[in-house]
Write a structure and sequence with these properties.
The chain is of the alpha/beta class and 321 residues long. Helices cover 34% and strands 15% of the residues. The protein has 12 helices and 12 strands. The strands form 2 sheets. It has a 7-stranded parallel beta sheet with strand order 8-7-6-9-10-11-12. The longest helix has 19 residues. The chain is globular, with a radius of gyration of 21 Å. The relative contact order is 0.15. The structure holds (2R)-2,3-dihydroxypropanoic acid.
């Protein structure tokens, strides 16, 4: 029987995923779940046939150029691939895959949570009760904004964006979207397409960022884009921090252009932006859009399906390079 390929799983994954991987691969694991430096990634790549990393491992052009010849595939445990320099992988002939679809529901749930939490002042309310400072009630107390029936603009109507649209329509929101291409009517489901970003921002009481971070979208929410939003709009980001110019975002929060925001992604991760902590109208989570047990297991299955296909000589379904 042929030797099982050697696979490095860079971070601690669920017991279910690691047990499935152990069945078909010789594993190098990371039970302490430590973050890896570029040097470790390069060193390990000389010892393994495949790597199953997360978006926490950076594969810059320099790192990819120095990967060992033994590594033939990098099967990401993420849909986002902005941590991977794809042209550099192509130049090396190393295959790269991702895990689309399986995290769309979980991420859309967090987009709705952020919209609701930002609009209904979740940070202030939670802190007040927790700190035992809730001493009175009146009709003018903790009044927030209603989500139901409002206009939602979505940047990026891919898999996650489409589910956010569906969930928002459950709240009777009118959905507008800005996307590279208009969707087929069956997928568009009454959402209103905008070819022009600014025309969509102008009708976005709520704005949800759902596109990948690419050359075209980095900093898409900059000073000019914020100026097109209705005064008092609410923005949520479950995609990538790189989409937002964080100084322009802070200016919009400070001026009231944005009345609140919900962020699951930051320019600097882990850690986020300490300047945001002064603003109770920014509801923040630590990049947990896909963090449900069901989704974690499904991401593991998807990454392992891609690896299995590759090592069986087939084309992985989710090949991105
Ligand atoms: C993804 O899959 O891209 C999520 O952001 C988690 O890594």
């Amino acid at each position: 029987m042929a030797e099982k390929p050697v696979l490095w799983i860079t971070r601690k994954l669920s017991d279910y995923t690691q047990a499935r991987a152990a069945r078909d691969y010789q594993l190098v694991l990371n039970p302490e779940d430590t973050l890896h430096t570029a040097e470790t990634i390069i060193e390990m790549s000389h010892k393994v046939d495949g790597i199953l990393p997360c978006h926490s491992e950076m594969f810059s052009a320099d790192v990819v150029a120095r990967l060992g010849n033994r590594t033939k595939i990098v099967a990401n445990y993420s849909v986002g691939i902005d941590h991977c320099d794809l042209p550099a992988f192509q130049a090396r002939g190393i295959r790269v895959t991702n895990t689309p679809d399986v995290l769309s529901d979980a991420t859309a749930e967090v987009a709705m949570l952020l919209m609701l939490g930002a609009a209904r002042r979740a940070v202030e309310g939670d802190r007040m009760v927790r700190d035992q400072k809730w001493t009175s009630w009146s009709p003018s107390f903790m009044v927030g904004q209603q989500v139901s029936g409002k206009r939602l603009g979505i940047i990026g109507m891919g898999r996650v964006g489409q589910i956010v649209a569906k969930r928002a329509q459950g709240f009777d929101m009118t959905v507008h979207y800005f996307n590279r291409h208009r969707l087929e009517p069956a997928l568009e489901k009454n959402a209103i397409f905008h070819k022009d970003l600014h025309s969509m921002l102008a009708v976005s009481d709520f704005l949800s960022l759902n596109c990948p971070a690419t050359e075209d979208t980095r900093g898409i929410m900059g000073p000019e884009a914020f100026s097109y939003l209705p005064d008092g709009a609410i923005m949520v980001n479950t995609a990538r921090g790189a989409l937002v110019d964080e100084e322009a975002f802070l200016a919009a929060i400070t001026s009231g252009k944005l009345s609140a925001a919900g962020l699951d992604c930051f320019a600097t991760e882990p850690g986020g932006n300490p300047k945001f902590a002064r603003h109770d109208n920014i509801f923040m989570l630590p990049h947990i859009g896909s963090a449900t047990q069901e989704t974690r297991d499904a991401m593991g299955d998807r990454a392992l399906d891609n690896l299995d296909a590759f090592f069986a000589g087939r084309t992985p379904v989710d090949l991105v390079a």
